[in-house]
Every structure is written in C-alpha cells, then in structure tokens.
Amino acid sequence: MESLVKISNQEVEVTHRSFAVEMPDTTLGAVVTGVKLAEISDQDFAELYKVWLDRALLVFPGQHLTDAEQIAFARRFGSLEIEMGVLTNLKDDGTVREDVNDDMVKVLKGNMHWHVDSTYMPVQSKGAVLSASVAPVEGGETEWADLRAGYDALDDATRAKIEHLSAHHSLKHSWAKLGYTESKDSSYNGYGLNETEVPLRPLVKVHPETGRRSLNVGRHAHAIPGLSPEASEELLDELQAITCQSPRTYRHRWKAGDVILWDNRATLHRVMPWDLSLARVMRHTRIAGDPVTEGWERAAA
Ligand SMILES: [Fe+2]
Questions:
Q1: Which of 24, 120, 275, 295 is the most core-located residue (most Cβ within 10 A)?
Q2: What is the pLDDT of residues 139-185, one digit of tens each?
Q3: Class of residue 105 by CB neighbours under 10 A (exposed 0-12, middle 13-18, buried 19+)
Q4: What whole-number distance in Å separates Cα of residue 270 and Cα of residue 262?
Q5: Which residues surround ligand 1, an ion (CB under 5 A)?
Q6: Which residue segment(s) compose the domain that 118 sits in?
Q7: Is residue 283 part of a domain?
Q8: How far apart (Å, rounded) are the C-alpha atoms in residues 68 and 74?
Q9: Exposed e or buried b for every residue in 164-182, given b needs 16+ CB within 10 A?
Q10: What is the CATH number of the domain that holds 272?
Q11: CA of 268 to the centre of ligand 1 (A)
C-alpha cells in the first residue's frame, strides 16, 4: 500500500511496510530486517519487490529458511530455473572434496570469477536466492557488482562504441580459460556444458522492469562479432574492471541462516576464495528469466 503526500510542493511517495531497510554506501544492496520471509504478507512482498528492483541485491540476516520455504519465497518472483542446488565442497558423506579434478570443485573455483548466472543458457536467469547453511570462519564471502552503475560510469565514446555490440556467452569457454574440461564420472551434471549453439547477447542490456541500461559482461562473455579476439578480450576486461570497483560493489560475510536475493539482470557476482579444507554449504535457488527479455539472439549467418 502506498500514498502520495505533498511536502514542499513536491509529491513524495510514502510507503507502508513493516520491515526496515538499511542502505550501505554503495550503488547496490540493502539489508532488510524485521521481516520473516517464510511468512511475508502480500503487501510487504510488493514493497520488498520495489526495493529489490531499486537496489538489485537484498540481504536478509538470520532467516534460517527450510528448503521448502526458500523455494516458496523464490517462486513469488516467477518460475524457477533451478529449485534447489547445494553448492558445497563436501561430499554426500560429509568429507571434503579433495580431488582438484572433481567437477564440483571446478564449479566452485569457477564461481570465484565474476559472472552473471545462466548467460550461457538460452535464457539467462531473472534472479537468485542464496542461503548459507555452513559458512567458513574465514573467506568464502560473496561479492556483487552493479552492472547498471558500471554502464552509468562509462564515457560517451565508450557508450557509443558498445551500443550495438554483442558477445557470445559460453561455460565451455569460461571453463577452458581456467584450464578445465568436463570430467566423465562426477557429481556435476554438466549443466550448460553441452552447448550446440552459443548464445549471443548485447553488451548493453535494458532492464525489462526498470528500463535502466546495464552492461552484460562477466567470465562467460567472449568473442564479440566484428572485433579481433584480442580487442574483444580487452574491451570486455575494461568494462568489467570499470564495473567491479567501489562504490559499485558489495561484499557479504555469511553467517549460517543468512539469505540473499539478487537481480541477475543487473549484477555480477563471485565467491571469494576460502581454504577448501573448510566446509562451506550454500543453498541456491535460481529464478527463471523471461524468454522475451532474457533470451538470446543468434549471430547473423
Ligand atoms: Fe553464480
């Protein structure tokens, strides 16, 4: 529920919500307290959704959601691409994965590099809900970067240069860059690696709900048609470097029970390295993108 009131001859939107929002001194991110996500009312959800679109990243400390509650909360944002994926360096028997050729270890190490989820799939995701079950005592934070603010920070010449450029997005490419290939016989199901066609996505993405422009870069992006491989890498590196610096980044140190929701149409993220002999258990629910606005274009034949 909201209303408009006149203050100093200006109409100001006043919202009525039962939760508190604390804004850090960054272009993205907000810490939300005073709400139980498992029981959130429709009115509070509507208010929360607006804050999410504005800040692109919401942190909810100490929620301790069950899997069913996390999935139900994520479903309020749309259909799900992945209901529940456990991202952990533990095996099913609780021991640590020590084999560096283990595909799950490759996934975890790959996630230490800036990326947007599912850009290598036919439809990139809308967003994600991530929660911590076990957090290491040191390292393993997650960091996000604001692709909207990255675009805003570009000079006019760079904006004009990239306006009509696209890049290919491939998990095979980003794995190969790290020296990885997919193993047979592993716990990883090969999501995104069996590509028959490689998605092509514009470097400038227009957010389907806010209309804001943002960059669509990250480790899966490569091979911009019309540029040499060297020029393509240089441009993608430059755009990522501009984006991934203060005040356009936000880093969260996890405690068990924390929940974070992000807008995958406006942010990059990565996990910070940690001692892989220490357990880290995260639960990930991925919200599906709209095929119309998050789908891919094909390269001209
Ligand atoms: Fe991710």
A1: 120
A2: 999 999 999 999 999 999 999 999 999 999 999 999 999 998 877 65
A3: buried
A4: 12
A5: 117
A6: 18-291
A7: yes
A8: 10
A9: ebbbbbbbbbbbeeeebee
A10: 3.60.130.10
A11: 8
196/223 Cα distance (integer angstroms): 16
Domain count, the chain: 1
* Integer Cα distance of 138 and 246 in angstroms: 22
Q: What tokens appear for 16 in the block? A: 């009525």
In a domain, 269, yes or no: yes
User: Which residue spans within 67-156 are E strands per DSSP?
Assistant: 80-88, 127-134, 142-146
For residue 297, being part of any structural domain is answered with no
Of 285, 268, 271, 240, nearest in space to 105 by CA: 271
Measured in Å, residue 75 CA sits from the centre of ligand 1 at 18
Q: Give the whole-angstrom CA distance, residue 62 versus residue 31.
A: 11
Pick 102 or 228 by higher pLDDT.
Answer: 228
Tokens of 27: 């272009």
Judge whether 229 lies within some domain.
yes
pLDDT of residue 15: 63
